[in-house]
């Protein structure tokens, strides 16, 4: 049964009711870790120097990949929450200890696609005047966001599949996500964009509201995955039953 965005959001609110503290704390920790690392890079490297500029940009991309891997663990936490299984703050490091190469390949490819389309705007932003640099950076960010949504409409289930199937390879997860998303791309985009009004509201809270919005959003997307795979209609009793049905083809 294909559930509507409203249905999935209702499930997310019910799942998070009384359980908001840990998802909020976990997302805050991820934000602090990646922000501190990024500030260290931008603070100590001289972007007026070409070599330093390139090094800075590469490190920022690496930190983006690190953030993606932490968010994979975050999704693991929320899947466990939705399934009424044990979940802890340590879940955010899950991708680093469970065949990390699979998660690295998937998230690197998705990150690379966003980088390639926004690079023409990112590079000039460092050599332009302050106003032009701000405009170019904003355009680059918007393009990355749009590309991210489009890619997620095709490959957004890959990380969930890797979480549920330890023997599945990166390329197989991307192909399986592509298959599952057939007929569901519009649903995904509609669901994703339905959070846009709340995102705008969060701007007026100096982005503090994101700490509550993102757990709500990611929990809803986790339910979207569970809906597409049929798990919501045929609940999995425990994680072992998922692993018993795991795919065996490596990347």
Structure overview:
The protein is mainly alpha-helical. The protein has one domain (5-244). It is built from 11 helices and no strands. Helix 1 packs across helix 10 (210-228) and helix 2 (21-44) crosses helix 10. The longest helix has 33 residues, at 50-82. It is globular and about 60 Å long. The chain starts with a helix and ends in a 7-residue tail after the last helix.
Strand content: under 5%
Counted by DSSP, the helix tally is 11
Question: Which percent range fits the helix content?
Answer: over 70%
Q: Which value, in Å, is the CA radius of gyration?
A: 19 Å
Largest sheet: none
How many domains make up the 3D coordinates?
A: 1
By helix and strand content, what is the structural category? Answer: mainly alpha
Total number of strands: 0
Poorly predicted regions: 237-251
The outline comes out as globular
> What would you call the quaternary organization?
single chain
Instruction: Give the N-to-C terminal Cα separation.
Output: 31 Å
Q: H/E element string?
A: HHHHHHHHHHH
Average pLDDT level? 85
Write the layout of secondary structure elements.
Elements: H1 5-16, H2 21-44, H3 50-82, H4 100-125, H5 130-155, H6 158-164, H7 170-180, H8 185-193, H9 196-203, H10 210-228, H11 239-244
Entry keywords:
single chain; 251 residues; mainly alpha; 11 helices
């Amino acid at each position: 049964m294909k559930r509507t965005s409203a249905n999935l959001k209702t499930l997310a609110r019910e799942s998070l009711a009384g359980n908001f503290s840990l998802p909020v704390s976990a997302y805050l920790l991820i934000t602090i870790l990646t922000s501190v690392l990024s500030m260290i890079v931008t603070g100590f490297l001289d972007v007026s120097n070409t070599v330093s500029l390139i090094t800075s940009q590469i490190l920022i991309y690496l930190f983006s990949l690190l953030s993606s891997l932490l968010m994979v663990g975050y999704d693991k936490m929320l899947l466990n929450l939705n399934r009424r299984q044990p979940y802890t703050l340590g879940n955010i490091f899950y991708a680093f200890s469970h065949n990390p190469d699979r998660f690295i390949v998937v998230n690197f490819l998705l990150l690379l696609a966003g980088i390639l389309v926004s690079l023409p705007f990112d590079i000039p932003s460092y050599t332009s005047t302050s106003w032009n640099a701000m405009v170019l950076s904003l355009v680059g960010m918007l393009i990355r966001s749009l590309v991210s949504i489009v890619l997620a409409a095709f490959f957004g289930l890959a990380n969930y599949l890797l979480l549920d199937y330890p023997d599945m390879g990166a390329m197989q997860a991307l192909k399986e996500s592509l298959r599952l998303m057939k007929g569901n791309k519009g649903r995904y985009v509609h669901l994703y964009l339905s959070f846009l009004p709340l995102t705008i509201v969060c701007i007026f809270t100096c982005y503090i509201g994101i700490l509550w919005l993102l757990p709500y959003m990611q929990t809803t997307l986790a339910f979207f995955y569970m809906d597409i795979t049929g798990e919501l209609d045929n609940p999995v009793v425990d994680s072992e039953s998922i692993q018993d049905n795991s795919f065996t083809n490596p990347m």
